[in-house]
Write a structure and sequence with these properties.
The chain is an all-alpha fold and 188 residues long. The protein has 7 helices and no strands. The model has no long low-confidence stretch (mean pLDDT 81).
Length: 188
């Protein structure tokens, strides 16, 4: 385990995602090995990119488009009708006792049922992705709005400079002027 505790005092206790009390907090120390390189690369990358949801939005949108392109082109109600028909044919084959026909009808029924199941799963994922996209878009919009309201240090210093310049030209009493300028410089 590589921990500095003996087995009697928790040295052999599972850690990270293996621990029973794991709640998804804390990351890099307990990541599986295959994810540690990716994690380190992200740590070293541009912090603004980590805060942005743009890449996640593109990734989810790409997956959603892929699902839509590959979704069964048959409308759901037709898939159900085909499944019911295949089931009825299987029932007739079972009643006839013809083993070859039963095998053929069973395969058709299973294939139709599987198509419907895969289609339902695809649509379930599409709807779920749409909800995730909505949340990410809202979060990204808030982040962009917040980023637009942040004043950079240079802009902040420029504003203070304008205020000090205005005080120097408009306040005639030198003691008052110096007191106000001193107050402003104290917050810079």
């Amino acid at each position: 385990m590589g921990r500095a505790r003996c087995r009697l005092h928790g040295g052999n206790a599972p850690v990270g995602i293996d621990a029973s009390g794991y709640r998804g907090r804390g990351w890099s120390k307990y990541l599986p090995q295959r994810l540690q390189d990716i994690y380190r690369q992200l740590e070293e990358s541009d912090p603004d990119a980590l805060l942005s949801h743009k890449e996640g939005i593109k990734l989810i949108h790409t997956r959603q488009q892929d699902l839509l392109r590959n979704a069964d082109q048959t409308p759901s109600h037709e898939l159900w009708e085909q499944t019911v028909k295949a089931y009825e044919e299987l029932q007739h084959a079972l009643a006839s006792g013809n083993a070859a026909r039963v095998k053929e009808r069973k395969a058709k029924f299973e294939a139709t049922l599987k198509r419907g199941y895969v289609d339902a799963l695809s649509w379930q994922e599409i709807v779920s992705l749409e909800e995730n996209l909505r949340r990410l878009r809202e979060s990204e919009a808030r982040r962009m709005k917040d980023a637009a309201t942040i004043i950079t240090e240079d802009k902040y210093r420029m504003i203070i400079g304008y205020i000090i310049n205005s005080i120097n030209t408009r306040v005639k009493d030198p003691d008052t002027r110096m007191a106000i300028i001193g107050d402003l410089q104290a917050i810079v």
